[in-house]
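Per your request, structure below.
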């Protein structure tokens, strides 16, 4: 079976709860559509579990992108060159990540790891894909974190910028493709104006939104693309 989950944000117990509900096994595949880290209490535990499962396919979210940038610089050997890289612009980004974006839990968990495991985590984060195209249950899907900013039907996927893919919120009022369903996280379903059921997966023609606001008073959610079955955290 093919499953999707998104915006775990360090909610390790809820992540394990969903894996148990899905009876997730070696023959299954789980796509995680970004924002594994930050905000919640145990982002490193989630990442380390994902790293141990070859059938978990991670996609980049805006939080991974910022965390990777900050952690790489903070992990660099202290030299004149590395100190020069810590300019005012970076320090501003770092402060934003640690405070407004909830990166403090990620930074703390990262610091508890031995050096070789830190390197493995950085390598793993650097391998996250920006999007995946999959087929399940006779349907074609495009999986990505946020949306397709500045969308044009003539534009190739590889031509979209990082802000287009990681930050631009999806317009769920219209389908983008005649033959593919877009599956996204990033925008909590409770924040979609047309959604009458906050904290549930939102489906509309051409779209499935699966971020149910786990760290904003909602729940962690997953969906099986083969069957359409939905799963919600109970912890």
């Amino acid at each position: 079976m093919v499953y999707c989950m998104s915006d775990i944000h360090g909610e390790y117990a809820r992540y394990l709860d969903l894996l148990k509900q899905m009876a997730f096994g070696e023959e299954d595949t789980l796509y995680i559509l970004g924002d594994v880290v930050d905000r919640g209490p145990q982002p490193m535990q989630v990442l380390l579990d994902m790293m141990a499962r070859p059938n978990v396919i991670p996609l980049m979210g805006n939080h991974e992108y910022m965390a990777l940038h900050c952690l790489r610089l903070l992990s660099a050997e202290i030299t004149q060159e590395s100190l020069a890289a810590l300019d005012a612009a970076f320090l501003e980004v770092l402060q934003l990540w640690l405070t407004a974006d909830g990166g403090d839990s990620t930074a703390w968990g990262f610091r508890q790891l031995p050096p070789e495991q830190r390197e493995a985590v950085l390598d793993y984060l650097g391998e996250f894909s920006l999007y995946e195209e999959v087929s399940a249950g006779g349907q074609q899907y495009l999986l990505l974190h946020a949306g397709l900013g500045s969308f044009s039907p003539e534009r190739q996927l590889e031509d979209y910028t990082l802000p287009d893919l990681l930050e631009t919120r999806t317009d769920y009022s219209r389908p983008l493709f005649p033959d593919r369903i877009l599956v996204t996280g990033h925008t909590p379903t409770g924040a979609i104006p047309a959604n009458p059921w906050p904290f549930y997966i939102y489906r509309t023609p051409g779209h499935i939104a699966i971020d149910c606001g786990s760290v904003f008073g909602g729940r962690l959610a997953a969906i099986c693309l083969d069957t359409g079955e939905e799963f919600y955290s109970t912890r």
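The longest strand covers residues 131-136.

Regards,
D.
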